[in-house]
Amino acid sequence: MNKGFFKIPDVKNEPVKQYAPGSPERAELQAMYDKLWNSVRDIPMYIDGKEVRTGKTERVKPPHDHHHNVGHYHMGDVTHIQSAIDAALKARKQWAAMSWEQRASIFLKAADLIAGPYRAEINAATMIAQSKTAFQTEIDAACELIDFLRFNVKYMAEIYNEQPNSQPGIWNRMEYRPLEGFVFAVTPFNFTAISGNLPASAALMGNVVVWKPSLYQVYSAYVVMKVLIEAGLPAGVINMIMTDPAETARVVLGNPDFAGIHYTGSTTVFRSIWKTIGENIHLYRSYPRIVGETGGKDYVWMHPSADATEVAVALIRGAFEYQGQKCSAASRAYIPASRWKEVNELLGRMLSEIKMGSPRDFSNFVTAVIHEGAFDRIVNYIEDARKNPDCQIIYGGKYDKSVGYFIEPTVIVTKNPKSRTMVEEIFGPVLTIYIYEDAQWEASLELVNETSEYALTGAIFSRDRYAIETATIRLVDSAGNFYINDKPTGAVVDQQPFGGARGSGTNDKAGSKLNLLRWVSARSIKETFVPPIDYTYPFMK
Prior knowledge:
The protein is α/β, with parallel strands linked by helices. It contains 16 helices and 23 strands. The protein has helices spanning 24-37, 78-97, 100-115, 119-130, 134-161, 192-204, 218-230, 245-253, 267-279, 308-320, 337-353, 372-387, 420-423, 441-451, 465-474, 513-517; strands spanning 41-43, 45-47, 50-52, 57-59, 71-74, 170-178, 182-186, 208-212, 238-240, 258-264, 289-293, 298-302, 330-336, 391-395, 399-400, 406-407, 410-414, 430-436, 454-455, 457-461, 481-484, 501-502, 520-528. Helix 1 crosses helix 4, helix 4 runs antiparallel to helix 7 (218-230) and helix 10 crosses helix 11.
């Protein structure tokens, strides 16, 4: 409930540490990495504020060295799913009634803990178990998660302060209630920040949560839970379970108190969840909120007037940072024929300089993909392109999973703008380029718009302002996050609220007030100070 108001501290984006050679933060992070690398972490579930261990464990495998052991997590079963739901519902009344200032304090403290004493640990955990470089980890597990926690408090205060007008003798007010029931948070492997934000944003607004992180991200999710508990999160408000995905969905989506889902993951799974909710709609106390951010087939489009170096850097960073395992990663590009030679030469030079290996070596630009299943799927796309007469692999194309799941940054040039790697989401370090004739630049925009079922991110490069305006209008439905002269990745909380439409999700914009509004159910209250005592109106006289 919204009780009382106060001016929250001014919020600014968390500064990004650079981890330059010889810097204290670099030494601290390396030391923490080595400490975690040489220990075995026992990761429990958290249900009703208690650590739950089942003895049925699965090993945590660093993707860049899958023979090494850094820990194990405890798998739960259907009884633990139900226990998490019961714990959440038990906590709901007291948590929903807590003043919002007290809830805010918990998450603001969590942000400060991550910014300070837990920064190296959450970053090192993300580097080890998700194979992120130090910089990619810093902008994710530290800065973005801190920003989510702090800015969400700001947005909450703004929402609660939005009140209706009142007339003389009447007081109108709006109460922003949490949803009736529990929220189900399903989070992905690729961003620790998303993993922390999805349950935390719903909880901040007074909801209770059952959280199922990706089984490939539990190593850093464990740190998130430690931070929240230390920050004062009461028992049962967020319950973290490691359980079979299908079984979890069956139990959760079949519960009458299911009030909403906060999801980031594959489009296929999200559609399946939506279908199940529809089939079960008669079971629920209220219509569940469905919030999801899913896949992308994100593009870079170059106008003939654009700068070749700027485009080449955007392609390298946009396609290959974090091995292309971002839903926003550049996966298809459209380059004018007159500029292809310049762009190609720049790509070749930059790719020849890129190093690949463990994130412990800070000179590596790319590391390993998340697991063997992802490795095999990405390799299938590369081999399919190798056999396709319309496609030519001009850079990369090699791979090896003997030690880690390593795939070289791969660039394909295709003669067919609807070839498989131009259309389907790959979620790996594969970029496909189509070369169009300069005179057809306006027609190529329609090709960009119609090729993919997704509409998450897209980028255009041009020095011609008329072309920029044309592209912005023509591609209005093609991306929820649209970039002009910049790569299509790297959205920052409070600067570029993130989310897409079409097959990319519900576009509820994480990192903005719009997302938090999805986790409240508003109640309008009208109070009349002196009620009328005569039923008649003047017109009746």
